[in-house]
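User: These chains co-purify. Model them together.
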Amino acid sequence: MYGVSKSVQKLIEHFQKLPGVGPKSAARLTYYLIRMPKEEVFAFADAIKDLKEKTKLCSICANISEEDPCHICSSGTRNKSIVCVVEEPLQVLALEKSGFKGVYHVLHGVISPLNNVGPEDLKIRELLNRLKKEKITEIVLATNPTMEGEATAMYLKKLIGPLTIRMTRIASGLPVGGDLEYADEVTLSRALEGRRDY
Amino acid sequence: MYGVSKSVQKLIEHFQKLPGVGPKSAARLTYYLIRMPKEEVFAFADAIKDLKEKTKLCSICANISEEDPCHICSSGTRNKSIVCVVEEPLQVLALEKSGFKGVYHVLHGVISPLNNVGPEDLKIRELLNRLKKEKITEIVLATNPTMEGEATAMYLKKLIGPLTIRMTRIASGLPVGGDLEYADEVTLSRALEGRRDY
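Assistant: Joint model of the two components:
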């Protein structure tokens, strides 16, 4: 890349591999790091390495953790009879912030024939094993309200249905603070379907 | 941050310190790195450290470089009588892409009384020294067309003016591919002022 030093160029290329980071943001981030104190930049680099070295998947819920079982699965204060099934570890983060007090099961993907992802590629076998071993009373299907997320939820419902465990699906509707005017029609019809007495 | 492993949480915090990276993108980037191959993630971390360890400021133009003088200043094919003055090293990158064949001088900031940045905080003394030592025939003032960039250009014009060196300012006007309808009035009036025979 023309008159730019090699180490600058190399880091710009690395940043560009990250999702949502284009050539301009990659350059901006790189030049920002140049101006940051050395200790802080090194701590950042070490945090990246630690992420890969210290984390593994929890053998119970398949969430990302430094311990196995993870500290949600090994906690004494969580309601282990409610298992919330999510697509990705990132979604555990979101649900934790919302105050959910049950435990999780991370599928690590969704069923997506177009991308060659079938049920056998997800942590579904592990989920069935948990249902046999643990005392689970409710499965909350919290895959995304997308086509693939819905298909995966539907697949799990059919698969687990015969086990007579209560299965619920997170609600779809208007986001809090949202505006009817800007909601798409599918979301609106879901919000209507899911209406409750008031 | 609730039920999230320490190394994940730490890296999210580091990402959040970068410009334009909010809590959600920081989490997304972190979880993306978890899925990336270990070698690639380690190469990324090493590139960050290299950036700080291998780069320094060129003693001539104050651009960021691995060598001193930088390979623009030490190149035999550049026109060293034209010096383009920019605010930040990142802008050298942009100008290099545009095909500029002179050399640079990086101020490392703009005059900004509100942020307590005066002329003495910028590489202006170094620029004056270059004007004494080197055979420079033209100074291209390429600070940004912002209030602070204009003020800095004006300051340099007054300071260097008496030395009877040709001074030019990059043109302001409509961006290529832009639309008159969406241009702000100041840009439009600049575009009109700067009109040329056609």
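Helices of chain B lie at 6-16, 23-35, 38-54, 89-98, 124-133, 147-160, 185-193.
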